[in-house]
Specification:
With 314 residues, the protein is mainly alpha-helical. It has 9 helices and 3 strands. It has a 3-stranded antiparallel β-sheet with strand order 1-2-3, with no helix packed on it. A hairpin with a 2-residue loop joins strand 1 and strand 2. The longest helix has 36 residues.
Length: 314
């Protein structure tokens, strides 16, 4: 039997997502990401101190993945050059491509995936702001790191300022290393490919893409191992917060509609249709008379109107 809902408690239907509303939203988040990297520069001394502190922590934990990878990429151009192209481009190509693919082919999962990515990105911006960190490639030469992107800059469009095009190094924050969103976004892409790709190839790519990205960011001396770990942690926290963010957005959307919804009869009475009312204890609405019964007298209450007297037994 169909159920009627009390006015004001209806659940608003979720609007269908449209590309012309999603695209500005994605561009806005990316703009915030880029602006946040620029604004949260921090001073160089603090950034260097934070980078050296990370190295000391890794040494205490007997972790040293950056040096051997960086020496390998520096010594072997056939590894170093593709790694530089990987770092400079795929971060900005694969992630939007996965978003577009989800929007068209896996629309049911798109909103949750997009919210997870955006929430984690904002968490990364908080990290850039609170902990500006000098990447290994910008430490003094005595620490044993080589900037492979500067070494192989003649092969690509970048200069000595990481992946920034030549002459545009001042438009990027080179101390936004903690956490590594290169690794974080790659992990997000890998999860999407693994869960929704549906083929063995997409599962292989889902595992390989974030792993290779983690090796690339360390081998090119753009991130420490703990930067990569922090990028994974940021994505984990973002995954936990994403459902709460979606519920908050839904609540903000439905609140104006609930306020604007007027009572059906202006007094809040539960009118189902014109002249058809339901009172407590009734299962089926009864048709009410619009006028009082003259015989009932002027003091008859509306509750008495329409009540049938029992028919005497014959």
């Amino acid at each position: 039997m169909p159920q009627t809902e009390t006015p004001g408690t209806e659940v608003a239907l979720r609007p269908r997502l449209r590309w012309w509303t999603e695209l500005p939203l994605i561009l806005l988040v990316y703009g915030c990401y880029s602006a946040g990297r620029l604004l949260a520069r921090g001073d160089v001394t603090s950034a260097v101190d934070h980078g050296l502190a990370i190295l000391r922590i890794e040494k205490a934990l007997h972790l040293n993945a950056e040096h051997p990878l960086n020496r390998l990429f520096t010594r072997e151009p056939w590894l170093g050059v593709p790694a530089d192209f990987w770092y400079a481009s795929l971060h900005y190509l694969v992630t939007p491509a996965i978003l577009v693919w989800l929007f068209h082919a896996r629309a049911r999962h798109y909103r949750a995936a997009r919210t997870w990515l955006m929430t984690s990105t904002f968490l990364g911006l908080i990290g850039f702001t609170l902990l500006p960190t000098c990447p290994p490639r910008l430490l003094s030469a005595g620490h044993g790191f080589v900037d492979t992107m500067a070494q192989y800059s003649s092969y690509g469009w970048w200069g000595g300022a990481a992946s920034a095009p030549r002459g545009m190094g001042g438009m990027t924050n080179q101390y936004a290393a903690m956490p590594s969103l290169h690794v974080g976004w790659a992990l997000w892409c890998g999860v999407m490919l693994w869960r929704y790709g549906g083929t063995r190839l997409t599962k292989v790519l889902g595992v390989g893409y974030p792993l290779v990205t983690a090796l690339v960011v360390m081998g090119t001396a753009n991130h420490y191992l703990l930067d990569a770990v922090a990028g994974v942690a940021a994505m984990g926290v973002g995954l936990l917060l994403a459902p709460r963010v979606m519920r908050a957005v839904d609540l903000l959307r439905t609140r104006p509609a609930r306020r604007a919804a007027p009572a059906a009869d202006g007094t809040g009475s539960p009118i189902v249709s014109a002249g058809c009312q339901t009172s407590a204890g009734e299962r089926i609405p009864r048709q009410r008379e619009s006028r009082l019964d003259p015989a009932a007298g002027p003091d008859a209450s509306p509750a008495d109107v329409g009540e049938e007297a029992p028919t005497p037994a014959r």
